[in-house]
Specification:
- This protein is of the alpha/beta class and 296 residues long.
- It has a single domain, classed as Alpha-Beta Complex (Spore Coat Polysaccharide Biosynthesis Protein SpsA, Chain A).
- 26% of the residues lie in helices and 26% in strands.
- The chain contains seven helices and 13 strands.
- The strands form two sheets. Strands 1, 2, 3, 4, 6, 7, 8, 9, 10, 11 and 12 form an eleven-stranded mixed sheet that branches.
- Strand 7 and strand 8 form a beta hairpin.
- The longest helix is centred in the C-terminal third of the chain and has 17 residues.
- The protein is globular and about 55 Å long.
- The chain starts with a strand and ends with a helix.
């Protein structure tokens, strides 16, 4: 069975402004998402599921559909909304945003029944990353708790126009993930690459640290495991206005309680994305070069 690609596209890109997933950056007006879907088709994915929000569904569907990709891949949509919560829970008064990346994944539990990969809609992952992921997922049909991720070098994922957040990964001798720590406010400084902690102190990070760019692979049992953990999360944080249920939190929990393993896959691909509006010219230039080199 061919794996499925789950695209997290519900975020509106608050730092960038507007629906940045729809911004044409390729030589012919291609958006970053076009490259990801075409790379996924070439790698052997059989379906793509988009997690979006009802507020921009019409605009999104007008641009993204199976016909747009030559009907070469099946397309489905699911919706991440504030009130899509497990039974017994409600949205606290004053909360305005959904509940994070793992909440977004749960929106697809009714339409995905095979091994699947997830990506961010506005990140460029590179063709090799999709090929590496697809090959691995094809070995997992029928398996449970055998998860994976594509790891990138930290120095290749930074923005020159502001700080970023990254999941910094620790692996064992077998290439299995031991843990992932979400670091925020990462950037280049006079002392190298550093991140700022909650107290405002700066700490160094190695340039070759392996980081997650939200290119994960899961078997379908992830939905049930993740939903059960989400219930626990809501019991503790459900009345908070800004708490979010992130993928690294769930992955770390499953690794530490022994219910899953996560293989860290290596790729030769280069990641880039439009984190800030000022990143756009760099993305346009790099995509133009890929076209010039015949990659696309």
């Amino acid at each position: 069975m061919k794996p499925t690609l789950l695209v997290l596209a519900a975020g509106m890109g608050s730092r960038y402004g507007g629906l940045k997933q729809m911004d044409g950056v390729g030589p012919n007006g291609e958006i970053i998402l076009d490259y990801s879907v075409m790379d996924a088709i070439r790698a052997g994915f059989g379906k793509v599921v988009f997690v979006i929000r009802s507020s921009f569904a019409e605009q999104f569907k007008a641009r993204i559909n199976a016909e747009h990709y030559g009907n070469r891949i099946a397309v489905e949509y699911v919706y991440q909304e504030l009130d899509k919560l497990p039974a017994g829970f409600s949205v606290p008064e004053g909360r305005e945003k959904p509940w994070g990346t793992n909440h977004a994944i749960l929106m697809a539990k009714e339409v995905i029944h095979e091994p699947f990969a997830i990506i961010n809609a506005d990140d460029f992952y590179g063709r090799d990353a999709f090929e590496v992921m697809a090959r691995h997922l094809e070995t997992l049909d029928g398996a449970e708790g055998k998860y994976c991720m594509v790891g990138y070098r930290l120095e290749n994922t930074l923005s020159e126009n502001g700080t970023v957040s990254r999941g910094v990964c620790e692996t064992d001798a077998n290439g299995l993930l031991v843990g992932m720590t979400e670091r925020t406010s990462i950037g280049r400084t006079a002392n190298g690459i550093e991140y700022k902690d909650a107290d405002g102190s700066m700490h160094p990070l190695p340039a070759d640290a392996t980081v997650s760019m939200n290119l994960f692979g899961f078997t379908p049992d992830y939905f049930a495991k993740s939903e059960a953990l989400f219930v626990d999360f809501l019991k503790e944080h459900g009345q908070e206005l800004k708490s979010e249920y992130y993928i690294p939190f769930a992955v770390n929990t499953f690794i530490h309680n022994g219910t899953a393993t996560m293989t860290v896959l290596k790729t030769t691909a280069q990641w880039f994305g439009v984190t800030y509006k000022e990143d756009r010219p760099m993305v346009v230039e790099r995509l133009a070069q890929l076209h010039a080199n015949g990659v696309y």
